[in-house]
Batch of 4 targets.
Target 1
Amino acid sequence: MDNNELKRIRVGSRKSQLALIQTNIVVDSLKKRFKDLEFEIVTLDTVGDNVLDKALSKIGEKSLFTKELEVALAEREVDLVVHSLKDMPTTLPEGMTIGAILEREDPSDAVVLHPKFSSRSLSTLPEGSVLGTSSLRRIAQLRKRYPRLEFENVRGNLNTRLRKLDEGDHYAALILATAGLARMGWSDRINQKLPDDICLHAVGQGALAIEIRSQDAKIQKLVDFLNHKETLLRCVAERAFMRKLEGGCSVPVAVSSSLQNEMLTLKGGVFSLDGSRNIVGTRTVSISEKHGEKPNNSVNESCGVETNCASLLELNNSYETGVLLADDLLVKGAKDILSEIRQQSLNV
Ligand code: DPM
């Protein structure tokens, strides 16, 4: 590597406004910390950006928002990529690692109402009102509680969606991630934040992640300071839960988590698409105590996360929390719901 290459770091990003805001958050911290390095943002389109006429769950690929960026990483066209963690599959492609997970924003989902309904809420919208979301996770959880409402796919980036809401007469409200709205500077559009007992959030929601080449010690060292330990351990547990259930963005698997006084609590659920069945459970595990013999941790054991900011014991315990909860739900019948959903998505 010549000197120039050492000084100039290329950062991959999707092109949407939200993706660029997120990438700039990371690049600004890197610039502040490494004043003698130069950073260049390289933008790419992904399948998820290009195919806008289908629900996410029907495109049928797992790495919708990440694949093209990972190819650029593998081919050394970029040195690191900034993603929303929730868009990253729980098994990364060969040779890729999550080098850092940043401090999480509010991971909740939020309701954004059409201006003409701004004094209402989900429970007081007129009968038959249409909620725009293409998340099966959101639909499956909300359908049961709000049987008077209809759900319809809405795709496109956040700007497009808000325009479809405000300028049209079709959608009464959108359900969006609080974190994405906040990063766009649109927190004042949030009419209602959905608590856990109404809507559990997606795995990794609200957290940004940096993907790097596994063997790239130099970049690993560069991004290590960005890690936020609490977020990281919670997200490892959430991702382990998802992976054990083999859920992707096409399956209604949802979570919430907390880490307090070394106790990690993970709540998770699997929901049938029509909202008629849900299997929910909770596990609390001490992250600092040894719980029997564990296999050696590897990159895969942490769902692609490699870091110095938490010990192997802590990472193992977090991972184990997710696996234990997934096993609880499988015993309670989550398997039937999951295989039914896979069958349904094959048929559409
Ligand atoms: C994934 C889902 C959605 C995104 C599915 C889900 C929402 C799709 C939709 C996996 N990725 O949440 O159940 O609403 O039609 C996405 C958003 C963010 C990252 C936007 C959002 C911003 C928040 C964050 C899309 N990915 O969910 O409103 O960084 O966590």
Target 2
Amino acid sequence: MPMGEFDLIARHFTRAPRRRDRIALGVGDDCALLAPAPGQQLAVSTDLLLEGRHFLSTVPPERLGHKALAVNLSDLAACGAEPLAFTLALALPRADEAFLAPFARGLFELADAHGIELVGGDTTAGPLAICITVLGQVPAGQALLRSGARAGDQLWVSGTLGDARLALEAFRGRVALDGDGFEVARRAMERPEPRVALGLALRGLATSAIDLSDGLAGDLGHMLAASGTGARIDVDALPRSALLVRQPREVQLECLLAGGDDYELLFTAPAALHDAVRAAGVRAGVALACVGTVEADPGLRLVDAGGQALAARFAGFDHFSNPA
Ligand code: ADP
Ligand code: MG
């Protein structure tokens, strides 16, 4: 390696902690020392990203740095936790400045936007892999869980869904997008914005929440299973971009329901709190769409705006893997 492991860490991943109130000791010793505020629980989440499986080799390193942290912050957002710090375990084929400098730039730009510090990690030679662990805090007992959805609650989604999946299909050559459209979709896939402010604004309002990483249908399934409930979704109410609206309906549905990499929040709240939820969205600066209702009957029922059940049961509906 042209640059040793310790030089690499010192050069790219070591900065003096800016939040001395929360970070008593950062990078450089055997452990970092954190001081969560009294009365708070620590919220901890880890995501491992492998080239070829979780990101394409075509992703610019700056966006990869952003995304690796963003997907972790998205988990804190889903719990209504306030981010404090993170660790970074990195396997790299070689100490490549042309990769490391922009990767660290994208990473720290997002860290700075959320006022959090990199407090430690591990670095080794190997096939490119990025593992981040985020630490956050949430007042004891106030974390948003997957298990709290109750029959009668409204189902909400933030932002728009499906553009990241659309980009993936464009990379795979299965949909054609014009140059501008491709860039919009690609940005959604490579540079998701974690909904941290929304997660915080939903404390005390949402009965349950999950972040959308594997597609709405699957992630909603996790929430419903954890809550012991079912749900009805109006697929025509699912929020989508101007780009996705121009696609054929079956492509829209596939991207909306089985998308993946959306990193929006899906949450439930009592119907009586509808206006308060709207206000929370405004406070957080994120568009919210009310897309359905939690029901006592287990299972997911997909209907259109007219209330008609969707012809194809979604479980068997995979436009891209079974092209007609
Ligand atoms: P150890 O031998 O105790 O695992 P290392 O030599 O691996 O320690 O790391 C030295 C210091 O550098 C530790 O404080 C560790 O947390 C930090 N560190 C290592 N790799 C990274 C990285 N990629 N990002 C941030 N800190 C790192
Ligand atoms: Mg180590």
Target 3
Amino acid sequence: MYQQTEIKSYMPVNLVIGRQCVSKGKKVFLETGNKYLIVTGKSGAQKSGALYDVLQVLAGKEYEVFNEIEENPSFESIQKAGQICRDKKIDAIIAIGGGSALDGAKAIAVLGACEMEPMDLFEKEIKKALPLIAIPTTAGTGSEVTPYSILTINKWQTKKSFASSLIFPKHAFLDPGYTYSLSEYFTLSTAFDAASHLFESYLSKRSTSLSQMYANQGMESFSKCIGPLKERKFDEETRYNLMYASYLGGMAITHTGTTAMHALGYSMTYFHNFPHGFANLYFCRPYFTRMLKAVEDKTLHVIEKMGFKDYEDMCQFFEEPLDKVNLTLKDCEKYASLANMQASIQLTYGDLKEKDLVDIYLEAARL
Ligand code: NAP
Ligand code: FE
């Protein structure tokens, strides 16, 4: 019997992709708020040139700069910035930076609009948020088009995302030129994150014909970057293709969420300091082995669409820049129980139980 999967789609982000789009979008910066908080990390916004461009278009407007968002944002920094918003009557946020600054800014947009504790973001209904303009300076997370913000929860020793349609940025400006200043290391790790959004979305139990359209287009764009990523040569076209792939990955996971690979990766970041994209792809072999078993046709499609000859070719590509880490059985058991708390495990084919997650950590560490 013919059965169409239910498709739901909501995408309220007004988006521009192109060189100098911030300068060309001056009107948006003049209209979105009267007093802005510009949220950034320590250095990326400045190095990329994006902060300079934003300050130019804001000429005459009132603003404050909060540049304390760390990689994998903490409760402390978002709480501090939320308080600044309320004290100084900030009415709009501009986020400039990688996924960390963008995710931090989404949380600040909520805490700046309603007095609540950071933990409430995960436990209470979100009723209000300040309008947000997002300007990514990495090409990886797609956070500029997602309703997710991922924060570090120290008391749980992990990262967790909260979601709300109110934290979709109102506007997003994607200028690939802002990623030229990224180091080789972060260009690779963020590209890996974009790839993982694309294939995990395609392989999610929630994927639909619509989400697959974004994932397919994004994987095609990513496939053009394999050669340059191998050679560490990032010309203008590659920077564009990576940013486009990242945006499409964001669109894809907005429809489906991520899967086990992201859930497994959080402990590699929390306990071993892996940047987010490398943390995910640390599990390339064990994840894809299981996907090939559970959904072979879809998995073969993904490998081919990303431009790899086969499973081995793909694994070697993703493993090449990763550091080796020794994990004990005790580590693997602890990380598996943390990963098992993430809802994305249930969206993964293969019916993964906690003991399977322990095996995946052990296999990844042995390689
Ligand atoms: P990031 O943590 O935002 O930034 C990584 C590093 O790159 C930082 O040291 C940053 O410096 C630097 N940097 C950023 N842009 C730069 C530039 N143009 N030039 C030079 N340096 C630059 O990395 P990310 O991979 O983009 O974001 C990772 C975070 O996003 C994780 O917390 C992850 O969980 C989250 N994420 C969110 C979503 C979502 O949908 N919301 C999806 C996937 C991942 P500074 O810190 O000094 O500025
Ligand atoms: Fe991610």
Target 4
Amino acid sequence: MTSIRVLSVASEIYPLIKTGGLADVAGALPAALAAEGVAVQSLVPGYPSVLRAVGSLEAVYRFDDLFGGSARLLRGLAHGLELLVLEAPHLFDRPGGPYADAGGSDWPDNAFRFAALAWAAASIGSGDVAVHRPDVVHAHDWQAGLAPAYVHYGGRPRPATVMTVHNLAFQGAYPAGLLSALRLPAASYAIDGVEYHGAIGFLKAGLQLADRITTVSPTYAAEICTPEAGMGLDGLLRHRAGALSGILNGIDTSVWNPATDPRIASRYGPADVAARAVNKTALQRRFGLAEDSSAPLFGVISRLSWQKGLDLLLDAIPMLCGQGAQLVVLGAGDRPLEDGYGSAATQHASQVGCVIGYDEDLAHLIQAGSDAILVPSRFEPCGLTQLCALRYGAVPVVARVGGLADTVIDASEMALAAGVATGVQFSPVSRPMLEAAIRRAINLYRDPDSWSRMCRNGMSTDVSWRNPAKRYAQLYRSLLDSRA
Ligand code: ADP
């Protein structure tokens, strides 16, 4: 099996910089692909946290003028990742988040910040840089969306390109007047180029011009071809349906392993799910809830946003509490939701707890101590929380959309009789159906045999990157074969 070289281009990579699932994927896929004969280098922006995390860096290339300043490509190793860090102080050396300042306002020069990332990717892809030329440039999400465009219009020996959509809701559209400043040729401003509803669409460009498109679950791949979920890009995606496929995400099963996890109160495996009780008590204590081992405890770890359906859950709290259940919420995001969960925690202090913020350690304890994890998303490209829940024996209660539909086996009568259920699904995504799903989960919880069977089924589900990595490797190989 010949080895394939891939340049992965993403604006976040775990554990160096993370705001969501994209970072998890970018951080975990390279190691899984190595086992499939695919060597990955990861190109990331030189945010302060990234430069701090990578000890020794070797300069491999210098850009005299990369959208308003000089920049360097630095090669280094961190956490087993082969990194190419784009050090461009005028674009990335600033406090705040990767996309927005501390007040939550998008950086005004985001178009140039991520054009620079894509430009660097295309330069590496065309062999300008003193590193091995990749066979494939793999762009993730809108921040890397111009990479296939720069490769396409570069007019040089070109690598194959793949565009992966982690969330179609974020598209990166910028004024058409920036075209030449973004170093895009005039001819690119066309329907079969980067033009998108009178603007320059970064994600649109990638979807239009990459050789292959993937998204992170088969169901989401089908959903985004419909007007309901296509967010304005469904026409293009239908047009490119032959190039589009869905490959589920995995999770890093060494980071997410209840048998070895140092962040939880008591470690356990599928053979001793009863040992989860210690974690449940620790979780109830941490959130100041009644330490009642018989109360079904639901957990949420999420961005607090409309996408995640957490306004519906907020409305369902009186019903959940009325059933004697408990709820812990860890998340940050929309102010009304943060306030709403804060008030609910005050109002139902012994049954509802909430921590506003981002806390990896607490996320692990919630997975280990909750009886069930709620994911009532209106849309969910893949979703990682339910995969972690399966691994930790917390039963996922999920909306039947996107990757949630593909990864959880609903506890229907048939699935229960066959002993294969791993969770509860509901559809459509509405407050009544969410409440019905919570009631169904509570009823199942009151039947300890069925419940522990579901926990064990979940824990024995393969949620690792092994299968997804095989699928990506197949995709790269078939793409390169088709160009040979
Ligand atoms: P998205 O990328 O849309 O936010 P995913 O489910 O794909 O959603 O990935 C979210 C990831 O971020 C999961 O690993 C989840 O556990 C984690 N996460 C989300 N919010 C928090 C938080 N407040 N604290 C810790 N981890 C979080």
